[in-house]
Structures are given as structure tokens and as C-alpha cells.
Amino acid sequence: MIRIDQIKILEDRVDRAIELIKTLREENRTLRAGLDSAQKKIDELEGLIDTFKTEQGEIEEGILRALANLDKIEDEVLTTTEGEPSADISDDSKSAEKLEEEHTAHEGKNNSSELDIF
Q1: CA separation for the pair 109, 73 (Å, rounded)
Q2: 6-44 tens-digit pLDDT
Q3: Rg from Cα positions in the chain
Q4: Ordered DSSP codes for 24-92
Q5: Is residue 115 part of a domain?
Q6: Is residue 6 situated within a structural domain?
Q7: Residue 48 half-sphere exposure toward CB, CA atoms < 13 A
Q8: Percentage of the chain with pLDDT > 90?
Q9: Alpha-carbon distance 87 to 17, whole Å?
């Protein structure tokens, strides 16, 4: 026959099982909310990555276009200067020679005036 003590023990076990189930359900809800939050963050970050990749591609294309334009300009400059005589270079060398002569003449004057002083 079933005694009252056995019924009370059974009732205590059922109460503990009910409390455990409540606790586990609450924990489950909390974990699901955290998972949803993490999933939203992942989706947001994936969107940012896609935007970054798109912008990065546009930046790379812009840099490549700029480099191509610089190459064109360089080619144009080289082709125009190849056809013309290099007057600038000869003018520069003449100017350098002229400056050197003036400097030498000026030093000669300074040296002669120093000699005059002594």
C-alpha cells in the first residue's frame, strides 16, 4: 500500500522537476534572445563587409584609372620632348658655366682686395 510519506516524496520530486523545467525554459529564452541578437549583429557586419568590398573595388578602379591617366600624360610628355631639341638642357649648362665664371671672377676680386689690404 502507498503511504503518505511516499506521496510527499513524490510531490517534492514533481515540484523540483517543475522548478527545473521553469528554470530551463527561462534559460532557453535567454539563449534564444542572445542568439537572435548575435545573428542580427552578424547580418549587420556582413552588410558592412559587402559595402566595404564594393567601396574597396571602386577605390581600386579609381586608382587604376588615375595611374592609367598618369601613364598617358607621361607618354605624351615623352613623345613631345623626344621630337624637340633639348634647348633647356643646353641653356642650363650655359647658365651653370656663366655662374661659375662669375663666381671665379668674384673670388679673384676678393683675393686681390685681400692682398691689397695686407
Answers
A1: 49
A2: 999 999 999 999 999 999 999 999 999 999 999 999 999
A3: 46
A4: HHHHHHHHHHHHHHHHHHHHHHHHHHHHHHHHHHHHHHHHHHHHHHHHHHHHHHHHHHHHS--HHHHHH
A5: yes
A6: no
A7: 6
A8: 64
A9: 101
Reply yes or no on whether the pLDDT at 101 is more than 60.
Answer: yes
Cβ burial, residue 8 (10 Å; 0-12/13-18/19+): exposed
Burial 31-54 (b: 16+ CB within 10 A, else e): eeeeeeeeeeeeeeeeeeeeeeee
How far is the C-alpha of 56 from the C-alpha of 50, rounded, in Å? 10
Domain annotation covers residue 95: yes
Domain hosting residue 117, numbered range: 89-118
Neighbours of 116 (CB within 10 A): 7
Q: Is residue 105 part of a domain?
A: yes
Q: What is the pLDDT of residue 66?
A: 96
| Total domains, the chain | 1
